[in-house]
Design a protein that fits this description.
The structure is a homodimer. In chain A, about 65% of the residues lie in helices and about 15% in strands. Chain A has about 110 residues and is an alpha+beta fold. The first copy, chain A, has one domain (about 10-105): Arc Repressor Mutant, subunit A. Chain A has a 3-stranded antiparallel sheet. Chain A binds a DNA duplex (30 and 30 nucleotides) through helix 4.
DNA sequence: ACAATATATGAATATATGTTCATATATAAC
DNA sequence: GTTATATATGAACATATATTCATATATTGT
């Protein structure tokens, strides 16, 4: 009974786990991590981000799109310029916990 | 002075950020996330992990090696069997924070 | 409407990565 | 030592992904 309304625990898990891996995949690229890193100091426009990382504007735009789709950054338009900032606190929390892990392992 | 001993802040950062992205890359695969997920219930041997995920043993061994190199899981041998468990609390913390982000975004 | 500037996007290419198959290593039982 | 079992590893293949180049879109100023 209620078979079609019922979502089994396993199904929920396997979908959630897939989404979770997709989320971490977004953190798992050095360009995107560096973008997140500079945005931790506050919002920044696309050109300044690309300048900061020493990469061309197109590459940055492509990566910003991926960060945006994952809900990690948020754009704000001001005239021709678009400023990006981190979307919520989880982004910083995940970043910092990961960094703790690294530093912890490094001191063994 | 002291130029060769001195590591500039930027250099530290760029290396740490690279390592950080490498760490998240390890989380960023659905097979590895599922392995971490089952190990959150306690240690498990390779065969049972592969049974649990419905994947062949070789694929699991390959992924366990990557998880091991990243310091996320730890092996314990008992006879012919090798039991794997999560290495430290950071693994669960990162996993759970990521999951929070997902659920949070899902309820918008 | 036109030119200039900021950002986004599509296609192409090069590289990285996950899985499978076959096989190697390690331990235990006999 | 031989056989059986558990896990690990190397090579090959298929797929995914990041960057570049060229170009499109959007906004502003004239």
């Amino acid at each position: 009974m209620n078979e079609d309304k019922c979502i089994r625990k396993e199904e929920i898990d396997i979908n959630a786990l897939y989404d979770l891996s997709e989320l971490f995949k977004v953190f798992g690229d050095s360009t995107r991590i560096r973008i997140i890193s500079v945005l931790m100091d506050g919002e920044m426009c696309v050109y300044h981000i690309s300048e900061n990382l020493g990469m061309n504007q197109s590459a940055i735009s492509h990566q910003l799109r991926i960060l945006r789709s994952a809900g990690l950054v948020r754009p704000r338009r001001d005239g021709k310029t678009i400023y990006y900032s981190l979307d919520d606190e989880h982004v910083e929390t995940i970043f910092k916990t990961g960094m703790e892990h690294i530093l912890h392992k490094h001191n063994d």
